[in-house]
Write a structure and sequence with these properties.
It is a single chain. This protein is of the alpha/beta class. 36% of the residues lie in helices and 14% in strands. Among the domains are: 54 residues, Rossmann fold (3-Layer(aba) Sandwich), CATH 3.40.50.1980; 114 residues, Rossmann fold (3-Layer(aba) Sandwich), CATH 3.40.50.1980. Strands 3, 4, 5, 6, 7 and 8 form a 6-stranded mixed β-sheet that branches. It is globular. The termini are far apart.
């Protein structure tokens, strides 16, 4: 077994050899592991190049696409079939679906859906559009993605962010956005509703932007942030503090 350099959860996998990034794996390093199966998430065109190279070497590669929770759960089930873990995969999916159902019920009892903006990268602003799991995370958590772009990502100017007037602002931190500034250090964005109300938070890139079971944690976390009137579930409870915390803007 091996992992990419971005894979660190669960902690037990950190002892595994690293074969590069998910977009640019080291083909020789992969082949050195003599894998029976390689799992690859679909992405930009560059992601298909190592897949083709590995297949030319006779390696079985399964490529998955997960832009919705329905697709994510299908991926989990398919991986279960490929690895001989069908029962475990089905149990995982049923557990995740049950947790989402709890949030759905709680959100249905609330009023108001705050407009949210999810910052993928800054200062050259890139925000989450409506094609991807982030959009569904926002919706399932009781918010509305204020970026109407149908693409997965949307390039925005600060003027456009001001025009959109988001009521909640999520800033992901991780490899794609390693050192983002808080809103109170961005002079032109200090007056947007999210900054004025304090509803701006740093969030974990892996939890929100990487398809996987932790996306359900993200829904639970964001639901508690957007709708503090609902009771937080035991699992996936928001770790971002609402006051006196450097992660709140």
């Amino acid at each position: 077994m091996a992992r990419t350099n971005a894979d660190s959860l669960p902690a037990s996998i950190t002892r595994l050899p690293v074969i590069g990034t998910h977009m640019r794996p080291n083909i020789e390093a992969v082949l050195a592991q003599r894998p029976d199966l390689v799992l690859q998430m679909a992405g930009r065109k560059e992601a298909s190049l190592p897949v083709e190279a590995l297949r030319k070497h006779g390696v079985r590669v399964a490529v998955f696409h997960a832009a919705t929770f329905a697709e994510l759960f299908s991926v989990i089930r398919r991986v279960g079939v490929l690895t001989g873990s069908t029962a475990q995969a089905e149990a995982m999916v049923r557990g995740l679906e049950a947790r989402l159902a709890v949030i759905d019920a709680r959100i249905s009892a609330t009023t108001g859906r705050p407009k949210a903006l999810f910052e993928v990268r800054s200062p050259n602003m890139l925000a989450a559009g409506q094609s991807g799991l982030v959009d569904e995370i926002i919706r399932r958590a009781g918010g509305v993605n204020c970026v109407a772009d149908a693409a997965k990502f949307s390039r925005l100017s600060e003027e456009e962010v001001i025009r959109l007037a988001p009521e909640a602002y999520l800033i992901q931190r991780g490899p794609m956005n390693p050192a983002p500034l808080p809103l109170n250090e961005r002079p032109r964005l200090r007056a947007i509703p999210a900054a004025v109300s304090g509803k701006a938070w740093f969030v974990d890139e892996q939890k929100y932007s990487r398809p996987g079971p932790r996306n359900v944690d993200a829904v639970e976390e964001l639901a508690a942030l957007l709708h503090p009137e609902i009771k937080s579930p035991a699992k996936g409870r928001a770790t971002t503090k609402h006051s006196k915390n450097k992660d709140k803007q």
